[in-house]
Design a protein that fits this description.
Blueprint: H1 5-19, E1 29-33, H2 36-42, E2 53-54, E3 66-70, H3 76-79, H4 83-86, E4 87-92, E5 98-104, H5 115-128, E6 134-138, H6 141-146, H7 154-162, H8 168-171, E7 176-179, H9 187-197, E8 202-205, E9 209-214, H10 217-240, H11 250-260
Parallel strand pairs: 7-8
Antiparallel strand pairs: 1-3, 1-6, 2-5, 3-4, 4-5, 6-9, 8-9
Helix pairs in contact: 5-9
Bound molecules: 1,3-dihydroxyacetonephosphate and zinc ion (ZN).
Zinc ion (ZN) is lined by residues 27-28, 137, 139, 184, 208-209.
Length: 280
Amino acid sequence: MKETKLIKEFKKICTDGYNQGWHERNGGNLSYRMNDDEVNELKEYFNEDGKWQDIGTEVKDLANEYFMVTGSGKYFKNVSDEFEDAVCILKVSEDGKQYKIVYGLVNGGRPTSELPTHLMNLEVLKQRDKDIRIVYHCHPVNTIALTFVLPLEDEIFTREIWEMMTECPIIFPKGIGVINWMVPGGREIGVKTSEIMKEKDVAIWAHHGMFVCGKNFDETFGLMYTVEKSAEILVKVLSMSKEKLNTITADDFRKLQEPFGVTLEEKYLYEKKSKKIGEK
Ligand code: 13P
Ligand code: ZN
C-alpha cells in the first residue's frame, strides 16, 4: 500500500493517542470519510468483491462513500506497524444499510464495534459541515474519572471544564454533550451520540470515554487533548478542594466572545449560587 498523506496522518493520530495513554488494549476507535481524491489515490489496492454486511443502522446520506476505519479488537499501539491488519477501508451501500470491506483487515475481523456510532456521527456531521470527516473515540483517564463525581448534565460538564482553561470555550464553543452509561457498540448509543454531534464537537460517554470530531487530524487530536487536559486540571483541583476560591466567571466568558469571534450559549453561563464544584 502506498503511504499517502491520509495513511500517514491516520497512523500518526493512533500512535499519538496511544502515547497519551488513551488506548489501553483495543480501547478506542477512529473513522475517516474519504474524499474522491483520496479514494482515487488508493483505488488500485481495493478489492470490490467483498461480501455486503449489515451496519446495524441506516446512513442514507453516506451511500457509496468510502471510510477508513480501525478494526474491532485491534490495538492502536499496532496501527502504524500493522496497518493492513488493524485498519480497513469500507464502502457503504446504495441504501445506506450495509458495508463491504474493500481493503485491509488482512487477517480477518470486522470494523470497530462502534461502527454504528461512527457512521451515524459522520452522517450528521456531513449534513452540518461537509468538511468534517473524522470521528475519534478514546478512553481518557481524567474525563472518565469526572463522570463519577460530576452530575451527568451538559451544562454542568461544559461549564466546569470551560472554567479550567481560558481557551476552552474558544476551542469548543458549542460545549460538551454527556450521555449516561449505556451498553456500547450498538445503534442505540449511536443515536444518542449523533444527537449531540448535530451541533457539538464533543460527546462524553459516562464511565467509558469520549468522542470528538474534526476536519483534519491535528484539529481532532487537539480537541481531544484540550478537553482531557482541562479534565485533568479539574481532577487536580477537586483533589485539593471541593470548592474554588477563584475562577473564570460567567461575565468573563461573555467578554471572550467579541475578541475571539465566538458565540457562547447562555445556558452554560448560569450564575452560580454555590461555590462547590459541580453545583449550579
Ligand atoms: P473496538 O475494538 O470494537 O473498536 O472497541 C473498542 C472500544 O473502545 C469500544 O467502545
Ligand atoms: Zn470505547
